[in-house]
């Protein structure tokens, strides 16, 4: 692959220290922005880059920044979302561990663009080691004059603070995160107002993912147009993919958007194929919330075209036959994986993490967990399968925040694509306790399925 | 649940309060001191191993907020223990990707080795364990972590778990 934009120097020993990072071109983006650009110039470059939010929703970052209200006499805040709790996603922890200064540099440039003088990195509490790493790196940057008062003589002031969470997936949702940062329970707020108008302490606030903020550094260094040349169509630039599950080489990979899914799974440059010589059965391509696809549908869409790792290609076919890039949490399932058990595990997760404010989410996730549990443990009935579809449908779109959808989609898509396996569990409860369903026809060529 | 059992009186040491002060000294705008609640609860738990009702009341005093504001937060977030735990709490990820590559077996093995169920403390007071949700280490699964520094132990096998327990015992 061509030059990496985020992980270019990841192999350099001690790149987590200020001196080594600086020696490899670090903090050039801060110098360039603060010495030669206005804040609007920076926003303009980010717009030109086409960068889309890497936290999951894929909303264009430059556009989000331009929505930020700028009322007189009110502080503005930039909050970096380092809650990273979406099952299957571990790129932000990786980035903060090995390249803390890349995030800090991105935070300085982004805060400057937004006119924020106090910015936060909200890190989930479980990542205490990363919190220590960031605090140390912030102290180094401050020592070198890149944080604090009158940075590089530009007149711009910025304090950067790390705030720990307390263990709650919902705090990744931006308004829950803001509540949590204010020292409260992480209950999502009703929108509008959006954080861009009224966020942290009722001030205009931008919340961005770690990777989005880090990507601002190469965008400013190389220019937005240069960044936009990379990638594929409206999926510009590179993306960190967290690969897990039954792969030969799970891990974090920086890919150029548009890479064929097949190449990502099987080439030695990336995941190196399915572990233990097994066959691929299914993939969750963008973190646990996005629809699961059987092997045949993840490798090719229903038109027989190769699926690419891009926002558009993965969602080709909508929810009937497509999925989403999401946060880039790529989970591969081999022929021995049990889709029912996995779906139950996810439903259990979402039930556990529901904040409880909306009854469809609070009750529905618990109900789905219970029904999936009984199917998995041999007490299911055929009608349970449609019941699950029905419950999922009633949650979807009827809640304050998207956690409800995130809980509904994995269940609905598992039944959509793996109904045979659910029915087999119901019909052969004893056998299902002893062995797994296996590969079925989930890896067979699509043609048959595409017709109906 | 919050159990308001009477415990020994506790009093925060000056060293602990100095740590609170360090957090509060620069992080938040004037009047927004409530934002210090989560970092301070983490400091309390690191000191005592759990967050007792008495400790919460004193945190409320320190931050000049109502005790209920501390209780509702401490009970909302899963990291805070509302009961005493073992000196080492093994927190094993049980979510999808980890489960796919053997987390269930690791939890069974820990239960067997320690001889206590999830949430219970070994008789020597050294260990307890529980399943937790995705720790953002799915590519290095199975994985567990141990507070108060929340060190990660990755790519676990039964042998690695045995070694870890042995090492902690002899610490
Ligand atoms: C339940 C839920 C959990 C989320 N978790 C995260 C997370 O851990 N990290 C993250 O960056 N965004 C997460 N998001 C998305 C955020 O709400 C928000 O869209 C994102 O931080 C915006 O950053 P971006 O535009 O840079 O992607 C979550 C959303 C929901 C609904
Ligand atoms: S959808 Fe679920 S998590 Fe989101 S606000 Fe409603 S109850 Fe809470
Ligand atoms: S599922 Fe265990 S670390 Fe993510």
Descriptive notes:
The complex is a heterodimer of chains A (452) and B (171). Chain A is 44% helix and 13% strand. Chain A is an alpha/beta fold. In chain A, α2 runs parallel beside α6 and α3 crosses α6. Chain A starts with 17 loop residues before the first helix and ends with a helix. The longest helix of chain A has 25 residues. In chain A, β5 and β6 form a beta hairpin. Chain A is built from 20 helices and 13 strands. The radius of gyration of chain A is 22 Å and the shape is globular. In chain A, 57% of the residues are buried. With 171 residues, chain B is of the alpha+beta class. Chain B has two domains: 63 residues, Arc Repressor Mutant, subunit A (Orthogonal Bundle), CATH 1.10.10; 82 residues, Glutaredoxin (3-Layer(aba) Sandwich), CATH 3.40.30.10. Chain B has a four-stranded mixed sheet, with helices on one face. In chain B, β3 and β4 form a beta hairpin. In chain B, α2 runs antiparallel to α3. The site of flavin mononucleotide has 25 residues of chain A, from α4, β4 and α18.
Question: What is the CATH class of the largest domain in chain B?
Answer: Alpha Beta
Number of DSSP helical runs of chain B: 7
Describe the biggest sheet of chain B?
Answer: 4 strands, mixed
The SSE string of chain B, one letter per element, is HHHHEHHEEEH
The total strand number of chain B stands at 4
Helix/strand-derived category of chain A reads alpha/beta
Low-confidence stretches of chain A: 448-452
Bulk shape of chain B: elongated
Total strands of chain A: the figure is 13
Question: Which architecture of the largest domain in chain B does the CATH hierarchy give at level 2?
Answer: 3-Layer(aba) Sandwich
What percent of residues of chain B adopt helix (DSSP H or I)?
40-55%
Structural class of chain B: alpha+beta
How many structural domains does the protein architecture of chain B include? 2
Proportion in helices of chain A: 40-55%
**Order of the strands making up the biggest sheet of chain B:** 2-1-3-4
CATH superfamily of the largest domain in chain B: Glutaredoxin
Radius of gyration of chain B: 18 Å
Cα-atom Rg of chain A, whole angstroms?
22 Å
CATH-assigned fold name of the largest domain in chain B? Glutaredoxin
Oligomer: heterodimer
Overall residue-averaged pLDDT value of chain B: 95
């Amino acid at each position: 692959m061509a030059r990496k934009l985020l992980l270019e120097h990841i192999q350099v020993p001690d790149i987590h220290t200020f001196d080594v990072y600086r020696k490899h071109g670090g903090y050039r983006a801060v110098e360039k922005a603060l010495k030669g650009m206005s804040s609007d110039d920076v926003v303009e470059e980010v717009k030109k880059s086409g960068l889309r939010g890497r936290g999951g929703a894929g909303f264009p970052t430059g556009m989000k920044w331009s929505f930020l209200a700028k009322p007189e006499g009110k502080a503005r805040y930039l909050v970096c979302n380092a809650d990273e709790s979406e099952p299957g996603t571990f790129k932000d922890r990786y980035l903060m561990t090995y390249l803390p200064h890349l995030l800090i540099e991105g935070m300085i440039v982004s805060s400057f663009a937004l006119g924020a003088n106090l910015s936060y990195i909200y890190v989930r509490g479980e990542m205490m080691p990363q919190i220590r790493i960031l605090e140390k790196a912030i102290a180094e940057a401050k020592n070198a004059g890149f944080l604090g008062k009158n940075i590089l003589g530009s007149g711009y002031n910025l304090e950067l603070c790390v705030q720990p969470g307390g263990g709650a997936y919902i705090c990744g949702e931006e308004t829950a995160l803001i509540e949590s940062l204010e020292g409260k329970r992480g209950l999502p707020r009703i929108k509008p107002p959006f954080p861009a108008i009224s966020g942290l302490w009722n001030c205009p606030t931008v919340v961005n993912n770690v990777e989005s903020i880090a990507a601002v550094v190469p965008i400013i260094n190389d220019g937005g147009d240069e960044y936009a040349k990379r990638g594929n169509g409206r999926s510009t630039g590179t993306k960190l993919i967290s690969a897990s599950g039954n792969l030969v080489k799970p891990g974090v990979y920086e890919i150029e958007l548009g890479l064929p899914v097949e190449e990502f799974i099987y080439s030695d440059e990336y995941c190196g194929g399915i572990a233990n010589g097994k066959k691929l059965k299914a993939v969750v391509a963008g973190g646990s919330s996005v629809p699961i696809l059987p092997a045949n549908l993840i490798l090719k869409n229903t038109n027989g075209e190769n699926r690419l790792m891009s926002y558009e290609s993965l969602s080709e076919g909508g929810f009937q036959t497509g999925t989403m890039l999401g946060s880039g949490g790529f989970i591969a399932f081999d022929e021995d994986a049990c889709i029912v058990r996995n779906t139950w595990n996810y439903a259990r997760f979402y039930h556990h993490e529901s904040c409880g404010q909306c009854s469809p989410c609070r009750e529905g996730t618990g109900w789905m967990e219970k029904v999936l549990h009984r199917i998995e443990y041999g007490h299911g009935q055929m009608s349970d399968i449609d019941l699950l579809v029905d419950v999922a449908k009633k949650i979807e779109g009827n809640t304050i925040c998207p956690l409800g959808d995130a809980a509904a989609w994995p269940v609905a898509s598992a039944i959509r694509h793996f109904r045979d396996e659910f029915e087999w569990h119901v019909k052969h409860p004893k056998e299902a306790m002893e062995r797994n369903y296996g590969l079925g026809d989930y890896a067979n060529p699509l043609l048959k399925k595409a017709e109906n | 649940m919050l159990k308001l059992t009477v415990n020994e009186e506790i009093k925060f040491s000056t060293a602990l309060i100095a740590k609170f002060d360090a957090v509060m000294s620069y992080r938040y705008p004037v009047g927004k001191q409530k934002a210090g609640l989560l970092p301070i609860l983490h400091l309390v738990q690191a000191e005592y191993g759990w967050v007792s009702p008495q400790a919460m009341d004193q945190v409320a005093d320190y931050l000049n907020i109502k005790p209920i504001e501390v209780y509702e937060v401490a009970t909302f977030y899963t990291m805070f223990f509302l009961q005493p735990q073992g000196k080492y709490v093994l927190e094993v990820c049980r979510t999808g990707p980890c489960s796919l590559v053997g987390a269930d077996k690791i939890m069974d093995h820990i239960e067997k080795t320690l001889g206590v169920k999830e949430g219970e403390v070994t008789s020597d007071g050294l260990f307890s364990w529980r399943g937790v949700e995705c720790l953002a280490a799915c590519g290095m699964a199975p994985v567990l972590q141990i507070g108060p520094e929340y060190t990660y132990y990755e790519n676990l096998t039964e042998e690695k778990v045995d070694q870890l327990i042995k090492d902690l015992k002899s610490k």
